[in-house]
Amino acid sequence: MPHTALYRKIRPRAFREILGQPHIVRALLSQLTTGQVSHAYLFCGTRGTGKTSAAKIFARAVNCLSPEDGEPCNTCEMCAAILAERCLDVAEIDAASNNGVDNIRDLREEVRFLPTSGRYKVYIVDEVHMLSGAAFNALLKTLEEPPPHVVFILATTDPQKIPATILSRCQRYDFRRISSEQMTGALAGYLEKEGVAFEAGALDYIAYHSDGAMRDALSLLDQCLSLSDGGLTLAKVRDLLGAVDRERLYEFTDALTACDTARIMEIIDTAMADGRDVMQFAADLVRHFRDVLVAGLTKGGEFSAAEVTKLVAQAKKVPVDTLMRYISAFSEILREMKFAPHMRTAFEVCALKICMPVATVAAVSPQKGSISTPMAAPQAPLPPQVLAQTAPPVSPAKSPDVAVLAKTSAPSGADSNILANWPQFCKKLPPSIRFICAKARVEEINGMLKISCDNEASRALLEGKTMTIREALADFFSLETPPNLAIEVSEAYSKSAEVTQASASQSQVSTLPAAEPEPTIPADWASFAQEVVGGEDF
Q1: Residues 23, 169: one domain?
Q2: Are residues 386 and 484 in the same domain?
Q3: Cα 390 from Cα 146, distance rounded (Å)
Q4: Which runs of E-coded beta strand occur in 291-331?
Q5: What's the CA gap between 249 and 177, in Å, rounded?
Q6: The pTM is what?
Q7: Least confident of 1-5, 52-56, 342-346
Q8: Do strands 121-126 and 90-94 pair parallel, antiparallel, or not at all (unpaired)?
Q9: Which of 170, 434, 501, 507 is a good FRET partner for 358, with 20 to 30 A between their CA atoms?
Q10: Cα(525)–Cα(101) distance, rounded to whole angstroms?
């Protein structure tokens, strides 16, 4: 006998066998028992949640010769013919391949004829959202005034693409994702019936990777059973799926939070040595971060009892904003890895960037003594020992209000080269900050590049582009480690703003001290700024 796929072999044959849709089952059974059968139904939901199975059961139920409380008997002549797919009164149409207006016109001609043996003609249209606009218009009149002996059941995974005129003429039922507990229970029942030994962790792992789709769970189980001799174990399921052990995901998250780069590289190397796919590793991480985030916020309502304790415990150690940053970073690298020449390197660099400290400078605001928080925050919280190693002493004589958290390790002579070629470098910057950098005054102080703007708005804009400027410096001057940046407002502007604010608070008018002149811009910078302003890129 040829092999039959597991999801076809154990397809539900009665409403009571449908998992996770009690609200839909209750409504359909009520209509069948009272005889209030509608002419059109719309079954919506993600893949593998039972839409087509419910449609086929409904088709048998409305034509069954001896129904039992709305359920089809599956033994009468009509039920047997429908199960064998030889009943002319039940037609299943694939709208993905029959989406033209001519197909719908043929259907309109067919519905006029009475059923040959049953009470109703039932048309099950799968993926109905794939119909063309003309096909929907052709179907509209039939749905609006259908013959009394016709029932349409439209199934779709994307109801947003269906016109409102079609939606308003159908009874809509939304199928929910099936929970992990229901899937593992159904899989365990099948394996016990077949006499196959299994580990509970293996079924939990299959249900976790099925994402609420029972058909996916059955397909994965069918695949695992074909290669598992002597029972189904968690190790065999991991090897077959090529997925990363969940314990390794917990360890990776802990290492990422502790900025333990050595442990991170060790976990990645072990996973790759075990033959795991780096894209799958990144995808599993993103989902794991999401699970930890949700478990911490909801106390693990949607997870199995075996995982709730671990997820909640890890959620207490990792802040919510940190988890959101992890999700954003690894989701971005997951997209970039599709085009990266070496995916593992891109993945490792992403993980290390999160752990490495980034120079952050607090700039002086126009109000005396206040310090504004920089827009470019460090990628990860720094342990005290790291801050102690990377923070040089602040020189009060040079910049009493600027705190430097990290010092560059740029090679000797790099800063002087940057100052000499600053105008040429500015041409490579994005248009939004090109003119500001060209007009700003640039100095080298203790191995750090100090950029002095002429107003507070420019300073705030450059602070938000700190990483962009540093990456451009590394690329333009071929630096392995670009210098850290100190974004300030020029002294002339700061003092003038302080005096203006002080005079506004006094009741009497006083003579303001003359503000220091703005710093002189070299001739080559001024000409370049004029070129940028007049250019088409700005």
Answers
A1: yes
A2: yes
A3: 77
A4: none
A5: 24
A6: 0.59
A7: 1-5
A8: parallel
A9: 434
A10: 66
Q: How far is CA 187 from CA 196, 205, 251, 458, 520, in A?
A: 11, 12, 29, 62, 77
More reliable by pLDDT, 469 or 534: 469
The CA distance from 127 to 124, in Å, is: 10
**158 and 129 in contact (C-beta within 8 Å)?**
yes
Distance CA 153, CA 144 (A): 14
- Region 83-111: mean pLDDT is 87
Residue 355's pLDDT is: 85
Mean per-residue pLDDT of the chain? 79
Q: What is the largest CA-CA distance in the chain?
A: 106
Specify whether the CB–CB gap between 93 and 125 falls below 8 A: yes
Strand partners, 488: 452
Asked if 374 and 360 count as a contact pair (C-beta separation under 8 A), the reply is yes
Q: Are 372 and 354 within 8 A, CB to CB?
A: no
Question: For the chain, how big is the Rg over CA atoms in Å?
Answer: 34
CB 348 within 8 A of CB 336: no
**How far does the chain reach from its first CA to its final CA, in angstroms?**
72
Whole-angstrom distance, CA of residue 95 vs CA of residue 124: 10
User: Does 332 share its domain with 481?
Assistant: no
Place of tokens 């509209």: 140
Tell the residue number behind the tokens 């890129």, with chain if given.
537
Question: What is the CATH classification number for the domain harbouring 490?
Answer: 3.30.300.180
Element (DSSP H or E) covering residue 197: none
Give the tens place of pLDDT for each residue, 219-261.
888 888 887 676 788 888 877 776 677 888 999 999 999 999 9
Could you tell me if residue 513 is inside a domain?
Answer: no
pLDDT attached to residue 27: 93
**Which amino acid, 149?**
H
d(CA 174, CA 159): 10
Whole-Å CA distances, 79 to 17, 357, 390: 17, 68, 77
Taken as a whole, the chain contains a residue count of 538
Q: Give alpha helix (H) positions in 3-132.
A: 6-9, 22-34, 51-63, 77-83, 101-110
Give me the pLDDT at residue 224, please: 85
Residues 443 and 295 in one domain: no
Task: Indicate whether 101 and 217 sit together in one domain.
Answer: no
Residue with tokens 């995982």: 307
In this model, does residue 135 exceed pLDDT 70? yes
Residue 37 sits at φ, ψ, to 5 deg, of -80, 130
Taking Cα atoms as reference points, which of 158, 198, 201, 196 lies closest to residue 180? 201
